[in-house]
Every structure is written in structure tokens, then in C-alpha cells.
Amino acid sequence: MGFQDYEGGCHCGRVHYTVSADIDNAITCNCSRCSKLGVILTFTPAENFKQQSGEEALTEYRFHRRVIRHLFCSTCGIESFARGTMPDGTEMVAVNVRCLEGVDPDALHPKRNDGRSA
C-alpha distances in angstroms, 55 versus 10, 26, 73? Predict the structure, then answer.
């Protein structure tokens, strides 16, 4: 499928964004945070992501190495995306595929990432 355009956001609708992403390359992660959340993630360059609303509603959480800005809605608590930097310095956005409109997560075959060992 490759990169496609999607709309996404949190549960209550306060945080909303558009993104061009390749969900065929989605992952699941077994780190302490992702395994509890049950997220399916896909990564896209920051220029492919545009927040439409809810910037003021975002609350940030960082853990472990503190390099990924986990952002969640302060109203409903959903983390629909996070911001970080690739090892080469490229800014990226990690999008929770479960928060994309019109996407059936059960139809995906995400790769498993061993974040627990990282």
C-alpha cells in the first residue's frame, strides 16, 4: 500500500491530526509502556504530520532514555501519537494506528519490536 493519507486523533475528539503514513510497516513493542497500552505504531517523518487541533490539550510523558515525547490528551487520556528523533537526527512522529479513522487494526500484521531489551 505504501504511504497513504489518514485522519486521526484521541477518543474525545479534542486532539485531531492528518498524517501520511505507511501502516504496512506498523509494529508492536513489548517495552514496559507499549505492552500495557497495546498500541500498534507506525513511524513517519514529522513533515508528514499536521496537527489540526488540540495542541493545548496535550500532556507529555517521557521515560527510560527520555527521548520520545509521549503525548496524550489531558481530557480522555489517549496517546494517539508521540514525537521523537531518529538516530540520524530526522524528526519523526510515532502514530498509534489504532487512532486512525477507517483503519481496521485486526487486518494488519505488525512486526514485533523487542523494546524490552533495548
Answer: 12, 25, 9
* 85 touches 92 (CB < 8 A): yes
Helix, strand or coil, per DSSP, at residue 46? helix
- How are beta strands 81-85 and 69-73 bridged, if at all? antiparallel
From CA 38, how far away is CA 71, in angstroms rounded?
16
pTM: predicted TM-score of the whole model, two decimal places: 0.88
Query: Which residue, chain included where needed, has cell 507506525?
Result: 42
pLDDT values of the chain reduced to their tens digit, one per residue, 118 residues = 689 999 999 999 999 999 999 999 998 988 888 888 889 999 999 999 999 999 999 998 777 666 689 999 999 999 999 999 888 889 999 999 999 999 999 999 888 876 777 6
> Which value, to the nearest 10 degrees, does the dihedral of the CA atoms of residues 49, 61, 16, 84 take?
0
- Show the CA angle centred on residue 23, arms to residues 13 and 67, nearest 5°: 75
CA distance 20 to 47: 9
